Automatic annotation (TrEMBL):
Chief localisation class: mitochondrion
Source organism of the structure: Fusarium culmorum
GO cellular component, one term: mitochondrion
Record's protein name: Altered inheritance of mitochondria protein 41
PANTHER family in the cross-refs: BLR7761 PROTEIN (PTHR43857), YJGH FAMILY PROTEIN (PTHR43857:SF1)
Similarity-based family: Belongs to the AIM41 family.
CDD domains in alphabetical order: YjgF_YER057c_UK114_like_6
SUPFAM superfamilies: GatB/YqeY motif, YjgF-like
Keywords: Mitochondrion
Gene Ontology MF, one: carbon-nitrogen ligase activity, with glutamine as amido-N-donor
Compartment list: Mitochondrion
Classification via Gene3D superfamilies: 1.10.10.410, RutC-like, Uncharacterised protein YqeY/AIM41 PF09424, N-terminal domain
Length: 330
């Protein structure tokens, strides 16, 4: 009985095996997605690039300032590199060859990033040639001596956009080359000979109705100094002002940052700031906003309680900046 059952089981297994060996019709499967062989950019990097484009189109300065373009990143790397160079010099003076080598290795690595950044770096000779061309163009256009430096900077702004340029060196070069083309009377010369001295001034307007009605500039540039007038929280595009003091403070700083950019400067170049508020209780409310803008700059500051021209104005800010000084190591 057991033997008969074993034979039946054996036949069943053979039948099932022959069934398994039957050829199977292959089905073509189409996959509607694929994985790229290239590494995708980091989500944060993609977001930063997209946000920067959006902020630049909207002139959203608070978002533009912290989001760095490639040019700004190269400038930041150069600042770190300058710190390493200074540290190497100090170590060399102290006969610390081990520290010198460490800093020189860091300088070499940073230089590789600058070289491979894709940002065009101008040599001193190239920059000087561009400045000379701008000076000649300004003279040919009949620009007055007192306005020539501002006109030259304006002509250079487009040509230098997207390039790795030391603003302090640029300002110094423009000052020197415009001085050679600007004659002025020298009081110590008895024969009234013509001497060539620096004489420049650039007035910057924001388009505010107050500037036209009263007769003043949003900012004045002379040499490498920028003096920004007392500025309030009006949105110059709409003429409206918020009732909230913190929003006014932020909009005021946006207006100031825009004026500084027109002068080839930035908020990081600010060396002195003056705050004027009618209500002393509003001072603490503005501190987080002011820290956001000046937390790393740390300019000399004065806060004053005083009435402003209109009741809706809750804060006024005035700044002085020196072009390029924000890049110097503190």
């Amino acid at each position: 009985m057991a033997s008969r059952q074993s034979m039946q089981l054996f036949r069943a297994l053979r039948t099932s095996q022959s069934t398994i060996r039957q050829p199977v019709n292959r089905i073509s499967v189409c996959r509607f997605y694929s994985t790229s062989t290239e590494d995708a950019p980091a989500p944060l990097l993609s977001k930063l690039k997209a946000d920067l484009k959006t902020a630049m189109r909207a002139k959203d300065t608070p978002h533009i300032n912290p989001i760095k373009t490639d040019v700004q990143l190269v400038a930041l790397i150069r600042k770190i590199q300058k710190g390493a160079q200074d540290a190497a010099a100090e170590a060399k003076a102290a006969n610390r060859d081990d520290l010198v080598q460490k800093e020189e290795d860091q300088i070499k690595v940073l230089n590789e990033y600058i070289t491979n950044s894709g940002v065009e770096s101008l040599t001193k000779a190239q920059l000087k040639a561009m400045v000379q061309d701008a000076v000649e163009a300004s003279k040919a256009a009949g620009v007055q001596a007192k306005s020539i430096m501002g006109d030259v900077m304006k002509r250079l702004s487009g040509a230098l956009e997207g390039k790795d340029v030391d603003k302090k060196e640029l300002s110094k070069m423009v000052k020197e080359l415009t001085a050679l083309s600007t004659p002025s009377f020298h009081p110590h010369n008895s024969q009234n000979r013509i001497y060539f001295t620096m004489a420049s001034r650039q007035n910057i307007s924001s388009g505010s109705a107050f500037e036209e009605q009263i007769g003043y500039s949003r900012a004045v540039v002379t040499g490498d100094w920028v003096f920004v007038s007392g500025t309030t929280g009006y949105d110059y595009a709409t003429g409206k002002i918020s009732a909230d003091v913190t929003e006014q403070a932020d909009q005021t700083m946006i207006n100031i940052a825009t004026a500084l950019e027109s002068a080839s400067a930035s908020v990081s170049d600010v060396v002195r700031v003056k705050y004027i508020l009618p209500d002393r209780d509003d001072f603490p409310k503005t501190w987080p906003v002011l820290k956001k803008w000046f937390g790393e700059v740390r300019p000399a500051a004065t806060m004053v309680q005083s009435a402003l021209m209109k009741d809706e104005m809750k804060i006024e800010i005035e700044v002085t900046a020196r072009i390029g000084c924000g890049k110097q190591d503190k």
